[in-house]
Amino acid sequence: MSVVVPPLPQGAGYGVVVGLGVTFALGMVWVTNAMKKAFNEDNNTTETFMVANRSVGTGLTAAAVISSWLYSTALLAASLLTYRYGLALGVWWGASASTMICVMAYLSIEAKRKSPNAHTMLEIVRVRYGNGVHKLWVVLALLNNSLVFSSMVLGASTAVSSLTGMNVTASTYLLPLGVAVYTSFGGLKATFLTDYVHTCIIMIILVWFTIKVITVKEIGSIGALYDAVLQAGIDKPVEGNYQGSYLTMRSKESLYFGILHIVSNFGVVIMDTGFWQKGFSADVAATVPGYILGGVASFSVPWTFGTIVGLAALALETTPAWPSYPNAMSAEEVSAGLVLPYVAQTVAGKGGAAAILLTIFMSCTSIASAQMIATSSIISFDIYGTYINKTPTDAQLIRWSHIGVVFTSLFISSLATAFHRGGVDMTWLLYMIGNLVNPGCFPTMLALLWKRQTRTAAIVSPIFGMACGLSVWFSTAYYYHGDISIASTGATMPNLFGCVTSFVVPLPTTIAISLIWPKEFDFNTFSDIKRVRAAETGSAPMRDFEEERELYFTPERVKYMKRMSRWAAFWAAATVTGHALLWPLPMYGAKMTFSKTLFVAWIVISLIWLWFTLLVAVFYPLVDGGLSQMWTILRGRREGEKKTSIEGSQNSTPPLEEEEEVEREVEKEVADLPKGV
Fold first, then answer.
1. How many CB atoms lie within 10 A of CB 390?
2. pLDDT of residue 43
3. Domain 10-35+45-665 -> CATH class
4. pTM, entire model
5. d(CA 395, CA 42)
6. Domain ranges in the chain?
7. DSSP state letter for 393
8. Alpha-carbon distance 334 to 581, whole Å?
């Protein structure tokens, strides 16, 4: 593909992929054992492995949300698409990251209000609609996770290969290897902890690299970057951009991609059980602020990083320092995501290449851990625990979770390899994924939010939506390009029409069917879902069910969750309106190119936002109880049976602390009673 000599030796690739993978695995095994000793958190129980005891605080939740959007594909593709279409792309990509996370904050608090003991999103679907619909959702969720995970591994492996010369197939199999080890040991809590560590490293590198790009001698300043990009628009104007400029928000391809990606990411997030599990695992008081803070902060990464790196590539490719100079990048190199690796080589040589290699590894393995937990939970809880062994013990569920992690690692690596050998690259997967994952989006949300959606509607609407979406996708590919091939089905317009169709069609379909044959659902049924008891069958209650319900649904907590639900709905609406409508659309209609003053302000504000993301992701979790918990782990002090989250007990709502204290006192008194009483 590329004739550019990799700046780093193959040994560097294997050293990072294998060496760091093993290091993180050993480190996470130690941390898991230390947490078990200090906080009595046993990752060999389903409640800890799948949902981290539902006690994660605000800071760590926000960091995990930011990490969820630090896809290696995001870093690579935001840069390459900005290189193609200009600075408008970064804003649209940022909007596609922030809006649905804030929507997810609303869905998460609603799930805690109605189904506080759920383990997966699919469990909620099964309780409401039965096994038939549940099986359909298992397929939809696994399809979503497989495409997202494989595209991320494929993009990362291609970038690792370009930086080190490492074999792409070897990279696809070795990247998830260490992740599978520490995920098997640590479960979802390990995912939160590794998310935090990886995000710290990634954010520090991103902040350093953006400054390095601007100050490199071939550019020198923001103003000089403006001048170089302005000239690039004259030398090779962009079709569909106002005056062919890269410095305009009126970019048709950016607009089309923005709509496509926002719609597709709604499907990617809502159909990903990993995002739901992070909501289930968060403390009641941490759910909404954690998701909203993480969602707003996540906007800066594709906007700032994608804009600066993508535009810098336009400025640098005409200089002798560019790896392929005097030749421009080929279309294949651009589609494979090599814009970022080439910029790294140009601005920082082997050091820059090593930093980007580390960033890609960190982003890939962080997402891989979350994807493995999500997929393994479906295998253990929704397949094994529902259809193979209907009364599983806690140990059996954990065993199948471990099997699911290993299976996921091997399957995704094989799928990514098949895509690579078949000529499919990261960009093709990025564009087409919504055609297959969007149909379940509205039916899933309505399963939790609308009591009148019926079982028939839940079955018909996603199937019909997918059929319509695929039909539109293939037919428009043939209409625009005269054939149905990888090239034609990966083009913008066929995917735009197909993804929007598969997203929108299920909504009127499910509403119409539900209103024609009406039947209402009692949301109180969701609270029948019970937690899994260690050393007991999956159906055994942790205590008397009515007592458990009363302890959770206190008047104070119910009132608090209703208030948080309203706040989440407000922030979701405000984020969609601001980030997707009020910001980019009016600037698209303005028919103007950026002046140098506006461009400098644009870059400066984006850098400030990126630094804000750094503070939220790196320092806030430490201030929010992380330092005290880390000190406890290092001292190895055991805190008895008290269930303390990694964020600190201060994140729990006061009514819950009082109730748990009373509950412990009652249990102690009962235990002290004479036998037979």
1. 11
2. 57
3. mainly alpha
4. 0.83
5. 12
6. 10-35+45-665
7. B
8. 29
